[in-house]
Specification:
Length: 260
């Protein structure tokens, strides 16, 4: 696999994404391959334009300008799946949700839930560490207007599928927003997870019990931590805390007993 100037393996097609994801033996390899992906021309052009033009308040910073890999340990029992990196958040810092208002919300909530060692995440080397949770996105590049196309979502989905497969203790997936909810179903089907019919509609607090490759798997819906939701009060801190509290409860329940 060819590598770019920064040493990341380069992927240039949907087929390359499928092969690269399937051949990733661990999260370290997967994260490197995600970081070198160039399979979606529109997203590549946008993320690199943003990294070159920059926002005035960050003009002295060097932007990441690449796809953003997930964050969190391989023994995580909880995964949090968002939409995509923010143009001046993860696309700038190189770490998912870091450096934007959505990150302010999700990392503070993870800290309150005992899943993060600090409530803030402002840059890649700020000391943030997650415990028992892996945070990732359905689409790994910052999209124009925060709106990936269905084709871009589907091209990117093998990265998410492989990431979840590399979490052998995974018990709960917290899905932020309707886009992530829709993106996750094909990923689960590809992994051989029996899916309910009809598919449950997205909603805040929706809970779906499934049987994953390694035992019980529960999906929990939450409104996305976007400014549109948090500024208007559609999503409040107690609402988000309740979802994460339920996630930790389910993750710690015995695998040989049905979750409450």
């Amino acid at each position: 696999m060819a590598r770019d100037a920064d040493g990341f393996p380069v992927t240039r097609s949907a087929g390359g994404v499928r092969r690269g994801a399937a051949g990733s033996r661990d999260l370290t390899v997967l994260d490197e391959r995600v970081s070198g992906c160039r399979a979606c021309p529109r997203l590549v052009a946008w993320r690199e334009e943003v990294a070159e033009v920059k926002r005035a308040s960050f003009r002295e910073e060097e932007y990441w300008g690449r796809p953003v890999p997930g964050l969190g340990p391989a023994d995580a029992r909880i995964a949090v799946v968002g939409l995509a990196p923010a143009a001046h958040g993860g696309n700038r810092t190189g770490r998912v949700f870091t450096g934007d208002r959505s990150g302010d919300w999700i990392f503070a909530a993870l800290w309150r839930a005992g899943l993060a060692n600090q409530p803030t995440s402002v840059h890649k080397d700020d000391g943030l560490a997650l415990t028992d949770v892996r945070v990732c996105a359905a689409v790994r590049c910052a999209p124009p207007a925060n709106a990936p196309t269905p084709e871009e979502r589907d091209t990117c989905s093998p990265w998410l599928a492989r990431e979840l497969a590399l979490l052998p203790r995974l018990r709960v997936v917290v899905v932020l927003g309707g886009f992530g909810w829709q993106a996750l179903w094909p990923v689960l089907a590809e992994a051989g997870v029996p899916l309910p019919r009809p598919r449950p509609a997205f909603g805040h607090g929706v809970e779906v019990s499934l049987t994953g490759p390694n035992g019980p798997l529960t999906l929990l819906g939450s409104y996305h931590v976007s400014q549109q939701n948090t500024f208007t009060g559609k999503l409040t801190e107690p609402m988000l805390d309740a979802v994460l509290s339920r996630a930790t409860e389910l993750a710690s329940s015995p695998t040989d007993e049905p979750a409450p």
